[in-house]
Amino acid sequence: MSVELLTLLFFGCLLLFVLLGSPLAFVLGGVSVVFLYYEMGAIGFYLLASKMWETMQSPTLMAIPLFVYMAILLEKSGVANDLYDMMHQWWGGLRGGLAIGTVLICVIFAAMSGISGAAVVTMGTIALPKMLERGYDKKLALGAINAGGGWGILIPPSILMVLYSLLTEVSVGRLFAAGIGPGLTLFVLVSIYIGVRCWLQPELGPALPKEERTGWGPKLRSLRAVILPILIVTIVLGAIFGGFATPTEAAAIGVFGALVATMINGQLSWKVTHETAVATLRLTALVMWILFAAHAFSAAYTALGAQSLISNLMEFIPGGRWGALLFMLLVLFLFGMVLDPVGIMLITLPVFLPVVREAGFDPIWFGILFIIMMEVGYMTPPFGFNLFYLKGVAPPDVTMGDIYASVIPYVLVTLLGVLLMILFPGIVLFIPELFYG
C-alpha cells in the first residue's frame, strides 16, 4: 500500500474515532499501535516500550505533577483575592484600570501556576462581577480575562512547555526563559489595547469615582499582597535560570512556597490538601496516557514514511520557508478551534518539527510560536477551553454569545504579537541567550 493511501487511512481513522467522541489519547495511541503493528510487526511494540521506558526515566517528567499541584494549591490559597484588592486600589482610578489590573494579575498567576484555567476561573469569579458592577463593558471585561488566562501556558513555569520539551528533546530551561519576553509583550499589547479603547470610549471602562479612590497609605499597605506571589515566582524561576536547580527541583520548591502561602492565608487544611492531591493524581495520570499516545503516534508515523511525504508537500507551498511557517501557524489556528492543545501537539509536532529543522528555524523560537497558537486555541470558538471555564463562573446574564464575541479583538492583538515575534526573534531568544549563552 502506498504511503499516500496509508496516510489518508491513518488520519481518516483518527478523525472518525475523534468525531465519535472517544478520548483523544486513547484514539491516538490505539490507532497508532494498530498501524505500527501492520507496518513493523511485533518489533514495533518493543520499540514503543523502549521509548516509553526511556521517557519514564526522565527527571523532567517529575516537574509535571509538582507544577500541577502548585497551581491547584495556589488557586485555593486566597492569594488572588488579596491581589485583586491591591489592583483595585492602584488601577481603579484609571479608565479601563480594573481590566488592565486584572490582566496584570493574570501575568502573576501565570508565573505561579503553569496552566491556563487557573487564572480564568479565579478572575472570572473575583474580578468579572466587580468590573460589571462598576459599569464596564461586558465584552471588554470577558475578553481581558480570557486573554490573560491563556498566558498560564506561555509565562514560565508552563506544563505545556514541559510536554513540548519531552516530545521535542529541547531544553525546558531555555524554553521557560524564552516564554518571558513574549508573555510580557502580550501583556503590554493587551494593556495598550484596553487603555486606548477606554480612552476613546470612556463608557467601556469608567474610572472609579474620586470619593471611592484610596490614599497612599492604604495603597502602600495593599502591596503586601504581592510579597508572597513575587517571592514564589522569584524562587522558582531564579533557581532555574541561576543554575541552582533543575526545573524539577524548582517545581518542588514552588510546591513548598505554595503550601506556605496557603498556610499564611489560613486556607491550609486536610480537605484542601486531599482535594489538591486527588486532582493532581488525575491530571498526572492523563498526562501519562498522553505521552504513551505521543510515542505511539510518532513511531507509527515514522514507520509509515509519512514524514517524508509531508516534507515533500511542504515544498509545494509558495513562499519558501516563510510560506511553510505561515501554513503551519494557520493549521495550528484552525486546529485550535476544534481540538485541545495537547491533542494538537501530539498530531502536529511529529509532522512539523522535521520541516522546522530543515527550514533552519530555531526549535525554541518555533516552540514559543507554537505555545502562543495553543493559547489562541484556548480562547477561540467553538471549543476553546477558556470559553467554557469562563461561562462556568460568569454571572447568569452573561451568555455564550457574549463570551464568543468578546475574544475577537484580543485574538487579533495576540496575532499581532506573533507577527512581532516573527519579525523580531530577539523578543523570544534574548533571555535564553542571556542566561544560557
State the helix count. Answer: 22
- Give the CA-CA distance, first to last residue: 48 Å
**Which parts are unreliable, with pLDDT below 50 for 5 consecutive residues or more?**
none
H/E element sequence: HHHHHHHHHHHHHHHHHHHHHH
Fraction of residues in β-strands: under 5%
Q: What summary fits the major beta sheet?
A: none
Instruction: Give the structural class.
Output: mainly alpha
State the share of residues found in helices, binned by percent.
Answer: over 70%
Seen as an oligomer or otherwise, the chain set is: single chain
Radius of gyration of CA atoms, rounded to a whole number: 22 Å
What is the mean pLDDT? Answer: 82
Based on Cα principal axes, name the global outline: globular
Would you report the number of β strands?
A: 0
Keywords:
single chain, 437 residues, mainly alpha, 0% strand, globular
Give an overview of the whole structure.
GO terms for molecular function: transmembrane transporter activity. InterPro entries: DctM (IPR010656), TRAP_DctM (IPR004681). Keywords: Cell inner membrane, Cell membrane, Membrane, Transmembrane, Transmembrane helix, Transport. This is TRAP transporter large permease protein. Its main location: membrane. The chain contains 22 helices and no strands. Helix 6 packs antiparallel against helix 7. With 437 residues, it is mainly α.
Secondary-structure map with pairings?
Layout (H helix, E strand, L loop, with lengths): L2 H17 L4 H17 L2 H14 L6 H13 L3 H13 L5 H17 L3 H17 L4 H12 L9 H10 L3 H29 L15 H7 L4 H15 L5 H18 L5 H35 L1 H9 L5 H17 L4 H19 L3 H17 L5 H9 L6 H7 L1 H16 L2 H11 L1
Helix pairs in contact: 1-2, 2-14, 3-14, 4-13, 4-14, 5-6, 6-7, 6-8, 6-10, 6-12, 7-8, 7-19, 8-20, 8-21, 9-17, 10-18, 10-21, 10-22, 12-13, 14-17, 15-17, 16-17, 16-18, 17-18, 18-21
InterPro entries: DctM, TRAP_DctM
Main location: membrane
Family: Belongs to the TRAP transporter large permease family.
